[in-house]
Design a protein that fits this description.
The protein is mainly alpha-helical. It contains 28 helices and four strands. Pfam families: Ank_2.
Length: about 725
């Protein structure tokens, strides 16, 4: 961005200027060249002076500018928009450069202070960068305050290529000075920009991508512990400061050009550390509690009942966080993101409330479809289609079955066309169910077209469709945990070819046959029928295929590779010792070494797939849940909506109604101290007082909490409440 070499300067374009001292030469009053050059200040001399920070080198600058009627903001003192002030700020020593105050003082006297402090780069790489950006990047709070006092634009946008998201060298911070201060972890500068008495920034201001400062922090996050700590701290600091200065502003509801709020952007980009912090954010101070997304309802010992704000999270809303995570195949860690509360419990409740029953009903319907399909295939007519309809009960039943499976195939085809086009990543991560159902429909429709055209080839597509229909029955295994995990492992076998390809290539190289010379190896005709072969007998059964035949040679070597070779073929050749030496070397390399290496690699791959299968199965079930929810009418979705409407009363006595989801957790590191508890009585929630007749239910609930505590103590990650537990019944529905 800056250099001690001056060859970076922009070549000055020729300009026409007036020589105000033209009469001195006529009157013989012109100064000599050395005196004139010592008083002249060009861009090179100015840049060299401010780079050293020596004010003495700028002595006489004001007088020269006044006499020559020039200003520091003139284009002749700029190189690609970089003026002397920008050059001075790029050459700070211990945070100071004494020439800066001197330049600002001269500029104020010349009347171009505003143009000087707001000058920006014009080249495409650093376009838009001003002195305020450089002062913030150099972490000089003193010069930041000085520039703002002098009228620096606090909303200037550095939109050059270096400040955009690209694959080359770059640093994206959101273009604005406030975003730069936040992304470089300078809370003092952020506070000054927000609360100074000269020119305050508007925290809602956005860059060319529509990202405000909070969006920029989300983009900058990289999931490392150090980065996550500073990003979350700065995020909360800006959020609370803006809420104190502007209580009615809702920064987290602002969308960028992609229609994403900050929490949606964190979900879309897989910033799991910041995303988890956003959902679990809980402020204890009364002034900032309205910024919380998590509220502690009641606490008893290590057991916490928390209310999570479902705004933007639940799939009941359009473009929700849950839909973004589930349907975006480019999120690298979306499996882990679905395990974060409350998303994990929210999906479990949706499954238990309606998705499980709908999924089982779909399974029964598909089973009926398969049965009818199989019966139609079994009782099909033989001959050349199309067949005439006979007025018998069996014919009418067969026709009804054909119409039924045709309607089913059309449904699968239309659903496959209407769905989002599956990418390669989607197939490799989410499985092959959607594309297989679509292929099933394609095969049936192709079979129907050939049937109507009177082609007997319809039967081939018909058989393929039937076989694929039974294979697609594996789709419904995702409703059961163990079968679903096994199904995922079957779908993930696409990794096996990655191992088989190198193995096959090596074996192919070893199988390159060397044709024996006519004088060295001459077969002897033999009618001995011993030895296994895949070749059909020829007309002359006395002639056996020889190793002069390439196809026969490759086949025999392949049989040696899989341990099925026969060494008796060497009896008819000369130099059998050479043959045995070559064959034994080949068998050692292929059958013993390479084949065992292949088995070891495949075992390692299967072990790795088994570790990933559980999380992938949960993701596939989440996709199924949301697909089933989308198929429901709006009125049913409203009735089946998860959560409860709560008045949290956190806005300075005003009503603050939110749709929340209750999750009961066990935390042995967080006890009932200094918590913003809504209800003093544990377990009350929105439930009415229980009478003595409900003691059994209360006992069951208590047992459930104890079971959760025991499971957490034993290190079980899936600390779900047992069936005896009954969630507190909400008063608001």
């Amino acid at each position: 961005m800056d250099s001690d070499y001056q060859d970076e300067l922009e070549e000055a374009a020729p300009k026409i200027r007036f020589n105000l001292n033209f009469d001195k030469e006529v009157r013989c009053l012109e100064e000599n060249k050395e005196d004139r050059d010592s008083k002249r200040f060009d861009i090179k001399r100015l840049f060299e002076a401010v780079s050293t920070g020596d004010v003495m080198k700028l002595e006489g600058l004001h007088q020269y500018l006044h006499q020559s009627m020039k200003k520091l903001s003139n284009t002749e003192y700029q190189s690609y928009g970089k003026n002397v002030l920008l050059k001075a700020l790029l050459n700070l020593r211990n945070g100071r450069n004494n020439t800066i105050e001197y330049l600002l003082d001269i500029s104020e006297k010349m009347g171009d202070i505003n143009e000087l402090v707001n000058a920006a780069y014009t080249d495409s790489y650093y376009k838009g960068q001003t002195a305020l950006h450089i002062a913030i990047e150099r972490r000089s709070t003193y010069f930041v305050e000085l520039l703002i006092k002098k009228g620096a634009n606090v909303h200037a946008k550095a939109c050059g290529k270096f400040f955009q998201l690209n694959d080359g060298p770059s640093f994206y911070f959101g273009e604005l000075p406030l975003s730069l201060a936040a992304c470089t972890n300078q809370p003092e500068v952020v506070d000054f920009l927000l609360e100074n008495d000269y020119h305050r920034v508007d925290v809602r201001e956005s860059d060319s991508l529509g990202n405000m400062v909070l969006h920029a922090l989300v983009v900058l996050a990289d999931n490392t512990p150090e980065n996550t700590d500073f990003i979350t701290s700065m995020y909360d600091h800006i959020l609370t400061t803006a809420a104190r200065l502007h209580p009615k502003w809702r920064l987290e509801d602002i969308e960028n050009n992609q229609g994403l709020t900050t929490i949606k952007l964190a979900a879309k980009t897989g910033k799991i550390g910041l995303f988890k912090h956003m959902m679990h954010r809980e402020f204890q101070e009364r002034e900032t509690r309205n910024l919380s997304r998590k509220f502690t309802e009641w606490v008893y010992g290590p057991v916490h009942s928390s209310l999570y704000d479902l705004d933007s999270l639940d799939s009941y809303e359009k473009n929700s966080v849950l839909e973004i995570i589930v349907y975006s195949s480019d999120i690298p860690n979306r499996h882990e993101m679905l395990q974060i509360e409350p998303l994990n419990r929210l999906l479990e409740e949706k499954w238990d409330k309606f998705a499980a029953r709908m999924f089982f009903l779909n399974f029964l319907v598909y089973l009926v479809y398969l049965s009818v399909f199989t019966a139609v295939a079994y009782y099909r007519k033989k001959g050349t289609p199309p067949f005439t309809l006979e007025h018998t009960r069996q014919e009418y039943l067969r026709l009804a079955g054909q119409l039924f499976i045709t309607v089913g195939a059309c449904y699968f085809f239309i659903r496959g066309v209407c769905r989002k086009r599956p990418s390669l990543d989607t197939l490799l991560i989410d499985g092959y169910s959607e594309i297989l159902f679509f292929l099933q429909a394609i095969f049936f429709l192709a079979s129907s077209v050939l049937y109507c055209c009177g082609r007997e080839e319809y039967l081939g597509f018909f058989v393929l469709c039937l076989a694929l229909s039974w294979v697609n029955l594996l789709y419904f295994s995702r409703g059961y945990r163990h079968m679903g995990i096994y199904s995922v492992m079957i779908q993930k076998v696409h990794r096996i070819p990655g191992i088989l390809c190198p193995f096959t290539a090596v074996v192919t190289l070893l199988m390159e046959p060397e044709l024996p010379d006519n004088n060295t190896a001459q077969p002897i005709n033999s009618t001995d029928g011993r030895g296994r072969t895949f070749f059909l007998p020829t007309e002359d059964s006395c002639i056996k295929p020889t190793f002069r035949n390439i196809s026969h040679t490759i086949m025999e070597l392949f049989k040696f590779t899989i341990g099925m070779g026969d060494l008796e073929f060497t009896e008819g050749y000369q130099y059998k010792e050479v043959f045995y030496m070559l064959l034994i070397s080949y068998i050692v390399l292929t059958y013993i070494l390479l084949l065992n290496m292949l088995i070891a690699l495949m075992s390692r791959t299967v072990e790795k797939m088994s570790l990933e299968s559980t999380s992938i199965w949960k993701l596939q079930r989440a996709i199924t849940i949301l697909d089933l929810e989308r198929s429901l009418p709006r009125c049913l979705r409203r009735r089946l909506r998860s959560g409860v409407d709560k008045d949290l009363g956190t806005r300075a006595g005003e009503k603050d109604r939110r749709w929340c989801f209750r999750v009961e957790e066990v935390n042995w590191n967080k006890w009932n101290t200094n918590l913003g508890i809504i209800n003093e009585d544990p377990g009350s929630g929105d439930t009415a007082r229980l009478s003595p007749t409900h003691s059994s239910r209360t006992l069951g609930r208590g047992i459930g909490l104890v079971c959760v505590s025991v499971r957490v103590l034993m290190g079980c990650h899936d600390a779900r409440l047992p069936a005896l537990y009954s969630e507190p019944r909400p008063l608001f529905s």
